[in-house]
Amino acid sequence: MSCSVPGSKVTSSCSPPAPPPVLGPACPCFTCPHAVLGGEGGREEDTPLIASLIPQYKGKANLHVFEDWCGGAVRHLRKNLHFPLFPHTRTTVKKLAVSPKWKNYGLRIFGYIHPFKDGDFQFSVASDDNSEFWLSSDDSPSNSRLAAFVGKLGTEWTAPGEFTKFSSQVSKPLRLMSSRRYYFELLHKQDDRGSDHVEVGWRVFLPSLKFEVIDSSYISLYTDESSLKMNHVEHIPQTLASHSGSYLWEAQQDEHGADMLKSDPRDTFFLTPAIEASRVENVLVPCAYSPTYVVKDFPIARYQGLQFVYLSFVYPNDFTRLTHMETENKCFYRESPLYLEKETHEDTTPAPGKMAATAAYNSSEAARSEGPRVTSFLKMSETTASQREEGKGQEEEEEEEEEVSDYSYETGELQQGWLEDSINWQRTFSVSSVDFELLRSDWNDLRCNVSGNLQLSESEVVDVVPFSFPRSIYTLLRIVNVEKRRDTARGNRYLLELELAERGQRTVRLSEYVYVLLHQGKQDDSAEANPDGPAPGATEPQPSPWSILYGKPILCRPLRLSWKQDVMVHFVVPVKNQARWVQQFISDMARLYGATKDTNFNVILVDFDSDDMDVEKALQDARLPRYQYLRRTGNFERSAGLQAGVDTVEDGHSIVFLCDLHIHFPPNILDSIRKHCVEGKLAYAPIVMRLSCGSSPREPNGYWEVNGFGLFGIYKSDFDRVGGMNTEEFRDRWGGEDWELLDRVLQSGLEVERLRLRNFYHYYHSKRGMWNARIKKPPKD
């Protein structure tokens, strides 16, 4: 198999890897390092002349921009989901000195350098914030090595043209030849503060010479990308500098403190074979299921449906509480007397240390309010010039006051009245065990977006679990998951997920709903549970003697509340001109299929005339069990797109999951959707964790989207029954259509299950360039 050097007709016998079907690590060399001009008969020294044969390649370098990503270090850029294959923008630059005047972005500039003479050269890079300059020993990207850099922490920076501030900025002398070209790569990361710039200078190795910026006369493109779609990435070089599988990427992964990253049996329990339904069908007596919190036909004011959605309790702890984010949202400790008051053995006056801490805090606040932090040479120059006269006046006042410094050696005695605070190191206090979970309720607290799922007590679980399976055949190995929906008036509903051993051999999974009925059901309850009467051929279940005893709780099997483990799930997503995100979504769906081998899901993409990629071809190339592509013209309309996608589903007894494009799915997402969707009874609105700028699933900083209902699972028949999406009112806008749909779902008599789902993330992105937005053309230089 042959490969070609970009922009030429050169071939050789090396074999590049096939285009990666999904995003993620791939071979770090997409180019052919052994290619020579003229095929096998060419000479190695002729290789750099390729660029000179293509005039449009001269005087420019490839520039890839990765927007909306926080942090000032290059290692932050490497953590970007789309780096290096799917930048926000692909363009060119005329010299190696760039200053976009923007914030929270990363740059990757690559191409070839053409030396103007033979000899030893030194390179230097200057930037605000960090940057790295990589140079190859020839024209092959795979031979690139780090030559110079500015900082590693994101706090280091230089002024424009300041090429000698750090020793790391200047490379060692490198022998170059004018008859050759050399592949280079420049990485730059800018945060949201200070000025932004990056430039590379070079000089012949003579100490007396100054560095000069490398301009258009000495650079050329790696390849011409002007006619390529954004999801065409086979030509993009991956090197040690940029390859996601390189040692640099792995070495710079910080150990994160989120408890949710720890493994949990819930995450993979769907892989355990399910228990045969006939084994547990008659273990519990059947009973009507009619909870009191259902608000069917109840008048709900506009957008007030979320006030009628209650949270479920979970056992064991799933560690969805974002303890690592409680420095920003202290919802557990907000003005709580349990937290603020302490009973001490000593006196109740504040400790001196606490007073000192308060003083230090106030002084730091004052320091922050003194003025803006100087973050670049340019700002420092402006500040110094504007405050020079004021500074002189302050110096004169200080001389007149003749204050004595704390570190003055001219005064041998302490000032009168000087008292040092004493610290009582032996002071103790009494404290009682505090569980803040007991202070929470099952209503949806919109103020607290870092709290996890409500915790269910172990004693309550133990009372329910032993009677839910035939103990003569099965042995309980582990309680994997229990979810409780509380109804103090009629009875609690539980979802039990147990790992059982069948006769001490095969391990099986029990995942069924049970009901603890607080009193005997009324006749109309049974009628409501079966409005059409018993199914043909079905026998009326005989009540247990226990069910006759009024007032005694009964553990029973709720009628018409069983979920289907193999029901089809349709993911419906409307898109428009979001190539990198569309490709990411398709890749995630392909990975989901690879991890689960589940063929019972379908991807429906409704494309509003995207012109940055061929969405249909991307679906064809992906390894998906099934997909549907629907093309629409005109402006992006989320409600209309979702409705159009659902309309393509013919089977009313399948589930539609209204989805967003920027979602990271856990492997158990299909199982989670199926468990919490029951036709005619239950819909599912999982709570997603919205990642902060610069965060990723491996480093999940962010908060739970407690008031968003845009991710919604419901049976197609129920979706049609409530009227579908409101396409008239939300024609040219989105935001609020999910709450409006929720109002109608609740009024139809459905419950909405609301749980925080582990490892379920919404990627950070800005609204810039999305959907129907138009971008202003930048001013010409």
UniProtKB/TrEMBL annotation:
InterPro entries: Chond_GalNAc, CS_glycosyltransferase, Nucleotide-diphossugar_trans, PA14/GLEYA, PA14_dom. It holds the Pfam family CHGN. The keyword Heme does not apply. It is an enzyme of class 2 (transferase). It catalyses: an N-acetyl-beta-D-glucosaminyl derivative + UDP-N-acetyl-alpha-D-galactosamine = an N-acetyl-beta-D-galactosaminyl-(1->4)-N-acetyl-beta-D-glucosaminyl derivative + UDP + H(+). Residues 56-218 form the PA14 domain. Belongs to the chondroitin N-acetylgalactosaminyltransferase family. Signal peptide: none annotated. It comes from the Eukaryota. Its EC number is 2.4.1.244. It is found in: Golgi apparatus, Golgi stack membrane. Keywords: Golgi apparatus, Membrane, Signal-anchor, Transferase, Transmembrane, Transmembrane helix. It is a single-pass type II membrane protein. SMART domains: PA14 (SM00758). It comes from Athene cunicularia (Burrowing owl). This is Beta-1,4-N-acetylgalactosaminyltransferase. GO terms for cellular component: Golgi cisterna membrane. PROSITE patterns: PA14. One of its GO terms (molecular function) is N-acetyl-beta-glucosaminyl-derivative 4-beta-N-acetylgalactosaminyltransferase activity. Residues 382-408, 524-544 are annotated as: Disordered. Residues 395-405 have a biased composition (Acidic residues).
